Q: What sequence folds into this?
């Protein structure tokens, strides 16, 4: 644990993080760890964060060294997509039992599990995740991985981020450290070129990076590694030969971006593929960085031409929705990069932002929101479910965009809701993704179901029915009376 403690300290003291830079020396030493509530960490722990970052590397076997529940908590709960290998979706765990713990069988079981995976699936690599139980029993996963790697001639990568050490975000960063320590730089590509880039922190949710990659292809820019979305092990292992990088989700992998810049001279910028102008800006920044790194300056003109063409197509498609959505009010309950990039995207088509949560946003994210919204009155740190419900019930927003956890607040307040977090079904990145996002918002807001559910319930607007209702204490009779009234006409539904 000593080396793990040092690693955590290192990750917390991230010089590229604005928040960290703003602290004094003492606060910086204390780090950003928030103590977890015992028993309430599952699903949001450091292990979970590490698994989220690494699992979309699709040809790798992800082996969780733990009792069964840790893997059950974290398996496949995000909508990342693969264009080929599917091994990442197979669940591997050592499934430790109490007997294994009592008999000290953890390391032996882990070694056998790695051998079984190698013999059955022959993957290019096995990633081994430590968890609370195996960290507490003192299993030395680094030593087991090293021994198994030598014995089987296989890359076996220890990911040392047991749940109890901290938050999901800390786990994200430790996953980046595992890649730096054991993967990136281990394969030397024979085809490195001046137009190679890395995309960091892009998860290819619902396949949305596939809406962006064709644009880069058209510019002759090769994505050496998209980490982690739809990545292959060999791409990640040779990512150190890229010329430039774009960091999509800063809070997840900023340490990876910064250290790759220091070790291999790969400059990076933070950008977003959500929204038309942000997509254009990201393309421009990539081209400019490549030119600074020695690429032919002609790429700048080609990029401008592509942007002009794609923007014109996207705006033409969006015009059909502009009239229907102009002035509609949006409440955005998400965080991170989406807190500003989606705000910007929606304002581009004339929607009004009545609030955006900045809970998971960096200082830089917040500054961007302020610039976009022109004031910070619409930024909220965290809104309690009760307040969120009251806001929606009093029609202060026409739609809420959030993750699945808050969907029922919106639905209970009879307000349209759209999932924009990791479980979403539709891709929203790039120009086409923006059109898709607006199409989904339009479908949600103008869904005819809202007219119906907002009408009073038939039993509230049928006084005669109320009078006819028998004594409510008599449950059988009440049920019979309600069953007899089956609304069929518009009048019955209270539409007149
Ligand atoms: S690693 Fe620890 S906190 Fe995370 S799911 Fe497993 S037991 Fe729970």
A:
């Amino acid at each position: 644990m000593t080396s793990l403690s040092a690693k955590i300290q290192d990750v917390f003291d991230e010089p590229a993080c604005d928040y960290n830079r703003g602290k004094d020396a003492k606060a910086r030493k204390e780090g950003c760890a928030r103590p977890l509530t015992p028993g309430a960490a599952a699903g949001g722990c450091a292990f979970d964060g590490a698994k989220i970052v690494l699992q979309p590397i699709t040809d790798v076997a992800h082996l969780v060294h733990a009792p069964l529940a840790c893997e059950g908590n974290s398996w496949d709960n995000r909508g990342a997509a693969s264009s080929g290998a599917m091994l990442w979706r197979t669940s591997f765990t050592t499934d430790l039992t109490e007997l294994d713990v009592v008999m000290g069988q953890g390391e032996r079981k882990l070694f056998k599990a790695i051998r079984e995976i190698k013999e059955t699936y022959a993957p290019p690599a096995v990633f081994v995740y430590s968890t609370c139980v195996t960290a507490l029993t003192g299993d030395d996963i680094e030593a087991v991985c090293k021994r198994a790697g030598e014995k089987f001639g296989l890359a076996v990568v220890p990911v040392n981020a047991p749940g109890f050490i901290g938050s999901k975000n800390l786990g994200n960063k430790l996953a980046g450290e595992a890649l730096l320590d054991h993967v990136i730089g281990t394969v030397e590509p024979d085809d490195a070129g001046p137009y190679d880039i890395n995309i960091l922190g892009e998860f290819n949710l619902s396949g949305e990076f596939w809406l962006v990659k064709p644009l880069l292809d058209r510019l002759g820019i090769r994505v050496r590694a998209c980490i982690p979305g739809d990545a292959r092990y060999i791409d990640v292992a040779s990512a150190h030969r890229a010329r430039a990088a774009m960091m999509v989700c800063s809070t997840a992998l900023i340490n990876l971006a910064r250290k790759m810049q220091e070790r291999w001279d790969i400059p990076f910028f933070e950008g977003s593929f959500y929204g038309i102008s942000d997509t254009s800006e990201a393309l421009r920044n990539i081209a400019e960085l490549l030119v600074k790194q020695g690429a032919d300056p002609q790429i700048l003109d080609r990029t401008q031409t592509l942007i002009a063409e794609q923007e014109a197509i996207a705006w033409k498609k969006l015009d059909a929705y502009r009239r229907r959505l102009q002035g509609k009010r949006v409440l955005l309950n998400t965080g991170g990069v989406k807190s500003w990039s989606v705000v910007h995207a929606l304002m581009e088509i004339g929607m009004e932002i009545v609030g955006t949560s900045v809970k998971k946003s960096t200082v830089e994210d917040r500054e961007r929101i302020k610039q976009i919204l022109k004031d910070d009155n619409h930024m909220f740190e965290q809104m309690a479910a009760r307040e969120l419900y009251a806001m929606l019930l009093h029609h202060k927003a026409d739609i809420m965009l959030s993750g699945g956890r808050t969907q029922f607040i919106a639905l209970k307040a009879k307000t349209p809701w759209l999932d924009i977090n990791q479980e979403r079904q539709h891709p929203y990145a790039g120009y086409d993704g923006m059109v898709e996002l607006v199409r989904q918002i339009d479908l949600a807001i103008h869904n005819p179901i809202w007219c119906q559910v907002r009408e009073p319930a038939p039993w509230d607007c049928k006084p005669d029915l109320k009078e006819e209702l028998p004594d409510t204490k008599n449950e059988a009779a009440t049920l019979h009376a309600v069953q007899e009234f089956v609304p069929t006409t518009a009048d019955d539904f209270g539409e007149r």
User: Anything to note?
Assistant: The pocket of iron/sulfur cluster is lined by residues 41-42, 45, 47-48, 66, 70, 73, 131-132, 162-164 (CB under 6 Å). The chain has 24 helices and 13 strands.
